[in-house]
Every structure is written in C-alpha cells, then in structure tokens.
Amino acid sequence: MLRAAGRRVLGLGLGHRVPAAASARGYHERVVDHYDNPRNVGSFDKNDPTVGTGLVGAPACGDVMKLQIKVDDSTGKIVDACFKTFGCGSAIASSSVATEWVKGKQMEEVLSIKNTEIAKHLSLPPVKLHCSMLAEDAIKAAVKDYEAKKAKLAAGNAETEQAEKVASA
Amino acid sequence: MRTSKNCSLFSLLRTRFEELLYEKTAKGGVLVGSTNVFGRTVFCLNNRPYSIFLRHFDLPSNSPSSCHHVFPKLMVTDRLFCSVEASNGESPRCWNCNGAAASPGPFLACGLCGSVQPLNQSVDFFEIFGLEKAYDMKDKNLETKYKDWQKKLHPDLVHSKSEKEKAFAAEQSARVIDAYQTLSKPLLRAIYLLKLEGIHVDEEKTVTYPDMLAEMLEIREAVDEANESQALKQIQTEVEAKFLTWSKSFEEAFKRRDFDDAITSIERMRYYDRALEEITKKL
C-alpha cells in the first residue's frame, strides 16, 4: 500500500511538471512573456459609468489584483480592459491573460471563463493555481461592479423622471 | 492499513518492527505508557509514538524464548501526539541508559550518560525557549536564549559522538533555528500561535473587501512610483505604524480568544508586511 501511494504521489508530480520549453527556474515561457511584455497595464476612470472595476485580494500571499472593463452600453460588449496587479509572476500573468481574453466578448460570456483554462494556458504549477482563481474572481467582480453601477444609474434616472413628472403635473 | 500477508513491504515492516520491539524491550529501554485509543494500543518507544492494532500482545520477559508478537495491523504514526509525561507521570527517558530527563522542557542530552536525545516533535517552539504561549515578546530575551541553545548544540560538541547522535543533534539544531525564526517575526509568531490552537490561516481564498484592498493598492502604487529613499522611508514609517496597530489588534483578539478577529488582523498584517518587503527591496 505504501508503494502504491508513493507511485501515486510521483505520478501527480510528473503530470504537472512543466513542458520541456520551460526555463530552469520553472516559470513557463508564457508567464515570463507576460511579465516582460506587459499588455493592458493601466487604469480607467473608476467613476466612468461604462467602466466596471473588480478589486480582489489573496490574503494568504498578500496579493492585490485590480481588473477593469470598459463596456459598450448598447451592445453589452467589452470593448477594452486593463489591469494592475501586485503579486507574483503567476498572478500578474493570470490577470494579463484575463484582460486579453475578455476583450471583444459579451459580459455574460466572460463569466464562464474558468481559472483552470487560464492555468492551463500558462502551465501553472499546482501551488500557483490560486493565482488563476484570483483572475477569474477579478473578472466576475468587474462585471458585477458594472451591473451594480448600471442598476444604480437606472434607479437614479427613474427617480429623477418621477420627480420631474410630479413637478410638471 | 494492509492486512494481507502477501505484501512484502508490509511483512518487512512487521519483521523489522518485531525485532525492534524485542531488541528495545530486552535491552530494558523505553517501552513507556500504553493506552487504548480507538481500539488501538498506543505506546511510545524512544519518544516516537507508535499505534498498533493488536490481537495478541505480550510484553516479553527478558528471556528470548518467551516472545510472542503477533502484529496483524501495524501503523507508525509520527504525528500522533505522544505525551510521555502525561501517560504515566514520568519524564522522557534516555534511549541509552534509561535515565530520566534532568529538567522539564526539551530533552537535549542525558544528564547521566551524556548521549544526545532524538527530537521530540511534541515540544512546541515556545516550550523550547521556556516561554508561555503569548504574543508579546518584549523583555523575553529571545535572542539570548537562542544563542544559549546554539552553544549547547554546536557541531563541535558532538563530533566525537556516534552517527546516530550526530543526526539527533542536527535535527535538534534545525528545530531550534526554525523556532527562533518563527518566534522572532511578529507575523510568523501570530500565525504560529493560531496554528497551535488548530487554526490554519494560510487558506488560498479570494477576498473582495473594497476598502482594505483599495488602501493596499494605493500603498503598493505609491511604493512603485516613489524613487527616492526619502519618499520611501516616509511610506515605510506610515506602513510600519499601521502594522503596529493591527499587531496590537491581534494581541487583543487572541487574548479574548476571538479567532475571527485574530485572522482578520493577521490578513492585514500580511498585506502591510508585503508592502514593507517591497520598500526594503527598493531601498
């Protein structure tokens, strides 16, 4: 039984090992690429009604991730995205990939982006899986923020309309 | 655990264990305290706890002919807490001469025969330095106690001993180093205190506390943008003050045994700690 258990543990380790293209330190070349050539780093205006901001953190490692989306109100399509992440290389790469993937998609579509897809794309080792989870949560938080803003705006408009009606009556 | 007698590994373990048990008990060493835990007999041999599911177990007399050991199921559990003192009121015994430990606390070297003792995992970091399980470390002379330990465990003092004792000394030394490194840093100390209470803080969860995260983002951005040491030191002072506030908050929460608050404090402390790390790197 001990032998079988040992074999299982080894198998698990081997399955997740990074492919031959990896650097000696163990980061996949895609992760290194995102780190060296960051895309979509930046900030949108938080108060812009077409912007949704997702701010998430991982207290276990002290990471902070901010992912912002710019949405076209009429079509519900995400026209632009940017991020700002303070954390390890895997976290930065995960959020970078997330911004690339959400661009040009519908808001409902991006909610189905799973952390496992991001992790597979970057060949993240098991110990860094939570970084991709953080990115998935950031996308969801950004969408949620945009929807909340929209709802608030709609409620605010309805109130103003009511007030105007009453005033003019 | 396996009961099949066809498993060669298991048979090997069984044989070895039988021989070991016989050898140790025949030599008059350390079969201390057996209690029944969930239908298994638990006993400690040389400060290593063993758990064994027994059908027949006769304590052998010293004559080789009357040994009956039947071990249908064998489980070696290093993690099982073995309170040797608690089980029969005796202090741990030396593996070599069976003498009792001279004083309470970590049993390092036998007072009677001078042989180095194996590591006792149940002694926690605080006990190693003779401190109570509290967060406050002022005036506790941690560093002095640490240096005292290292003097006792110095490699030169064991180079004339057996390989086994050298290995024991190395283990003991590594543990003392671990203990010092954990207890000397407030954040690690806090996490360790909760660990002793059975609470694990390092869960990989995501949080969305907007205010806290916005504050952390601001701090990290400020650190990123600041390029002269003056500005960095300014930020460092501010963040250190915040760390101190939450550090006190942890202490209070821990004393009240409000573990949720304690965990919140630790989370904030960790964020400030990361920021301070980044500042130190830049300075």
Automatic annotation (TrEMBL), chain A:
A GO BP entry is: iron-sulfur cluster assembly
**Cell compartment(s), UniProt:** Mitochondrion matrix
| Alphabetically ordered keywords of this record | 2Fe-2S, Iron, Iron-sulfur, Metal-binding, Mitochondrion, Transit peptide
Which InterPro entries does the protein's record reference?
ISCU, NIF_FeS_clus_asmbl_NifU_N
Obligatory cofactor(s): [2Fe-2S] cluster
Q: Where is the NIF system FeS cluster assembly NifU N-terminal domain?
A: 27-151
Q: Which GO terms describe its molecular function?
A: 2 iron, 2 sulfur cluster binding; iron ion binding
| Recorded GO CC terms | mitochondrial matrix
Principal localization reads: mitochondrion
- Iron-sulfur listed as a keyword: yes
Which family is this protein grouped under? Belongs to the NifU family.
Q: What does this protein do?
A: Scaffold protein for the de novo synthesis of iron-sulfur (Fe-S) clusters within mitochondria, which is required for maturation of both mitochondrial and cytoplasmic [2Fe-2S] and [4Fe-4S] proteins.
Q: How is this protein named in the record?
A: Iron-sulfur cluster assembly protein
- What organism does the record attribute this protein to? Canna indica (Indian-shot)
TrEMBL record, chain B:
| Primary residence | cytoplasm
| Intracellular or extracellular location(s) | Cytoplasm; Mitochondrion
Record-given protein name: Iron-sulfur cluster co-chaperone protein HscB, mitochondrial
**Is Chaperone there in the keyword field?**
yes
Q: Which InterPro entries match?
A: DnaJ_domain, HscB, HscB_C_sf, HscB_oligo_C, J_dom_sf
Q: Which PROSITE patterns match?
A: DNAJ_2
**Keywords from the UniProt entry:** Chaperone, Cytoplasm, Mitochondrion
